[in-house]
Each structure stands twice: as C-alpha cells, then as structure tokens.
Amino acid sequence: METTTTRTTYTVHHVRWLTDSVYVLRFDRGDITFAAGQYVSVGPTGTIDMREYSVYSAPDEPWLEVLVKVVDGGYVSRFLSQLTPGDPLNVDGPFGFFTIDPDWREHTYRFVATGTGISPFHAITRAYPGIDFHLLHGTRRQNERFELEHYDARRVTRCVSREPGGDLHGRVTDALRAEPIDAEARYYLCGNCDMIYEAFDILQDAGVPHANLFAEVYF
Length: 219
Ligand SMILES: Cc1cc2nc3c(=O)[nH]c(=O)nc-3n(C[C@H](O)[C@H](O)[C@H](O)COP(=O)(O)OP(=O)(O)OC[C@H]3O[C@@H](n4cnc5c(N)ncnc54)[C@H](O)[C@@H]3O)c2cc1C
What we know:
Largest sheet: 6 strands, antiparallel
Strand content: 25-35%
Structural class: alpha/beta
Bound molecules: flavin-adenine dinucleotide
Distance between the termini: 27 Å
Strand order of the largest sheet: 4-3-6-1-2-5
Order of helices and strands: EEEEEHEEHEEEHEHE
Low-confidence stretches: none
Number of domains: 2
Number of strands: 12
Mean pLDDT: 95
Helix content: 10-25%
C-alpha cells in the first residue's frame, strides 16, 4: 500500500483519557494515508521535539488517533496530553514496517503487547476484520484496559502483573511460557525492549523461525 503525507501542521480534535496516565489523542488526518501498524512522528509546532507514536485508529477512519502514556518527566507525552480542540500539532509520517502482508488471510497471528504497545494491534484488528489473531496484552494494573471492548474478547488474554486481575496474574512472557507455541504463526511483539528480548528468546527456543518474528520497540 502506498503511504503519503505532504503537510506537517494538523488540528487537534480532542484528548480522551482512558486511565489517569494514558489517553487517546485524535487529530485531523489531512492527506496522510498509512498502513495499519505504522507510526507517525508528533510534537509541538515550532520545535524539533517530535516523538514516534503508533497510529491507533484504522486507515479508513476520517481522523488519526494515537494512544499515549504520560511518561514521568517526559516532555512530548505531557505536552500532547494538555492539548485542547483546535490546537495545532506537528505530524510527520507515516513510517515503519510493522505491518501485515497482503496474504494475511493465509496466516495465523499472535500479537504480544505491553502497555500502549497495544496501539498498532488496535489499528490492525480494525483494518483487517476476520484476521485470525490472538492478543496477549500485559499491563501492571487491572484498570489499564485501553478499550479492550473493541476486540473479540475470545481472542484476548489480559496479563496483569502488579495486582490480581485479568485472565492471568503475571507478565505476557509468563503467558507465552505457559501456552503451547504455534511455530507456524506470525508473532508481532510491541512495547518495551525487555519484554521483546525475553519473548524473542522464548519463541526462538520454541522453534518459531526468525522470519515469523516482528517487533516494534518503544523504549
Ligand atoms: C516506533 C515507536 C513507536 C512508539 N509508539 C508509542 C505509542 O504508540 N504510545 C506511546 O505512549 N509511546 C510510544 N513510543 C514512545 C514515544 O515515542 C516516546 O518515547 C514517549 O512518549 C516519551 O516521550 P517524552 O517526550 O514524553 O519523554 P522524553 O522527554 O523523551 O523522556 C523523558 C524521560 O523518560 C524516559 N522515557 C522515554 N520514553 C519512555 C517510555 N516509553 N517509557 C518510560 N520511560 C521513557 C527517558 O529515558 C527520559 O528519562 C514509541 C516509540 C517508538 C520508537
């Protein structure tokens, strides 16, 4: 799919808080076209402070959304959280290759996310209705649900690590170790690098070929 953009200043629609530190920022999409799984670079106008955010919304929606966690001491994640409708915003992109091949109907997908790493999978599952997937989503707290009602509940396993709750009390890597690994499936991993390194090791040891492993590292 061809993806393009020509202008850089966009207008904020709103900020939608999902928890006390995670929100969805919606802004107009202008002439940006993208493939589900790609990211954009976003920041205040008139500065060079841009940060990467996976696109949360689907390619056919009339706006762009990103799912952002306010990082302690973070500049852009806090700045974006304070935007109000009509504010201007710098956006570049789309970028990245964390996308699904056109032959997606022939494959089974395993999506593994920590925190806001669920964002590209939100876009992908909306863009490809009927995709054969299972999503492991790991968060620290029970309340970090990030609009899970948008997914088929039978295809989601929630892992909550710091308190009881979810489908599994533990981390996504505990879930990967506990379940049979489908070495034919395509594994997409997104979130913090510690999870991604650990998951890579588990999956490679279980016989998943390198060609079936895809990763988007946030931090
Ligand atoms: C390809 C890509 C896609 C990404 N997509 C998303 C996304 O969809 N949603 C999202 O919330 N983030 C995403 N990120 C992370 C995002 O780009 C920023 O790094 C994050 O929002 C922090 O930016 P900041 O300006 O607030 O913090 P900064 O001012 O850059 O950093 C402040 C402090 O926080 C630390 N820090 C930076 N990033 C993180 C982090 N993610 N977690 C914990 N500590 C951190 C820094 O080391 C520093 O000490 C993505 C990153 C990449 C590379």
